[in-house]
Description:
The structure is a homodimer. By secondary structure, the first copy, chain A, is an all-alpha fold. Chain A has 15 helices and 2 strands.
Amino acid sequence: xxxxxLAPSWERIERPLVQIAADxxxxxxxxxxxxxxxxxxxxxxxxxxxxxxxxxxxxxLATASADLFGVPRSMSLRAGLAVECVHVHSLIHDDLxxxxxxxxxxxxxxxxxxxxxxxxxxxxxxxxxxxFEILCHPDTHPKAEVRSELTKDLARAAGAHGMAGGQMLxxxxxQQPVDLESIARLQRLKTGAIIGWAVEAGAILGAATTEDxxxxxxxxxxxxxxxxxxxxxxxxxxxxxxxxKRLRKDSxxxxxxxxxxxxxxxxxxxxxxxxxxxxxxLRPFERASAIFEALARFAIARDH
Amino acid sequence: xxxxxLAPSWERIERPLVQIAADxxxxxxxxxxxxxxxxxxxxxxxxxxxxxxxxxxxxxLATASADLFGVPRSMSLRAGLAVECVHVHSLIHDDLxxxxxxxxxxxxxxxxxxxxxxxxxxxxxxxxxxxFEILCHPDTHPKAEVRSELTKDLARAAGAHGMAGGQMLxxxxxQQPVDLESIARLQRLKTGAIIGWAVEAGAILGAATTEDxxxxxxxxxxxxxxxxxxxxxxxxxxxxxxxxKRLRKDSxxxxxxxxxxxxxxxxxxxxxxxxxxxxxxLRPFERASAIFEALARFAIARDH
Lengths: 304, 304
């Protein structure tokens, strides 16, 4: 995407992105105090992975969605923190030698390189558990019914019928999906389930109507796919230094992606179309959803 | 422990152990259906690890504790299932080559041997997430407040300030604890936190008084330590074939344990003393706690 087309979205989204990054860093700092004993190493590894990196798109989705329903920011930030715990957990485990075997993430050595593999396994596990501890704390919402629903849905989205199931599909070389539908299914699990939760979290916190939740779910589904196509494009055309991680992994592994199947140009058109469809789902929310619209456009302009 | 001393406890505990094993297997079968698609492999790995093995002591603790307060078995079994999910998750990850590197567990090849390492990582992750999905389902308890409390406490017990923190301490060769107090602290985190949750879960489900919860916590603390000493004794004197896992690991790694520090005989005496103390905490519950008493005696008679 050209920088001219990017400019207006970037202006609208820059401040929220800077703000959410600062908020999430501050909250991680609070929930991950380093004890004065030998187990400090585990907390240090968790902090290393969690603080000071990433675009925090999932927390931004959670807070933006909560804002539509007037939810206090102190609550929606906790939902954002929980979903980022799950995301960072998945990155740490995904980077392990037995998984994607990556040594660079968010511009610095991955956790198993900076610490060791065992610490990386435990730091990932601990962040996953922390997500649910955060959600079930009364500070997240005074109504236990809301906390319980958020937790059940996030646990489902993280597990075998969501993210972990998608990671499993992604690891099966012999059964690699070769058509668009299979790839879309894989991505709906691997990244879509968690993005979907982030968007719906605001609706759950704000006791939204079924109609509003359906609209937001439609937005999240289109955004998730657009986001994945942008990621595939980044992998095949991006600058590794800017991205802060290893690229060209798909082609190295001879993996079929949206880009190999559609070609670069059609993949870009497809991503833009999905963003327009995502934005279409926001009609019921009118002006309040400007940040959501900007975020969708920003998500596919990821040559930064 | 001699088989004569074991006999009376065994009679009282045999039926509940057989029953809980059947119940937990049945519930795992229900919550882990294998889908008809490539991601089936992940569910198969989870089933492989979860079904048909283990003594199910943690679920038995949860249901026994719930029975004290008249909680329907359908609810307490779900709490038992959740804690067993966390336990199996920890076994799968603990057995990984980068952790304890074990190839035998519950009498069969470990998950990363029977499948592969990546599948073992994801199966462990998915079981951890599943624990919280189970707890937050309305079938676990009609009151969301109860579900939320169970979840928050289990997440804390599983994470960096509980089990994972203890595993971390256990992996630090240079800072290996060398006195009884350090070893006790490690074990309170590594196994004690989850055992403590299992025992308290029944009290939470049954809206127990603070006094009753305190009594149960005391029981769990003593039981957890006794259990660990029994495990150390098993490692150094047990029969690997009967145990269904590799033994003599502590001595191979030159690791200090209750047994190396106290000697075998004093360690046995210590375990028996802890069991008596554990049982002492059960006084308020009178006859209803017979199973708890038998379970404590059974826990240290683990040459089976």
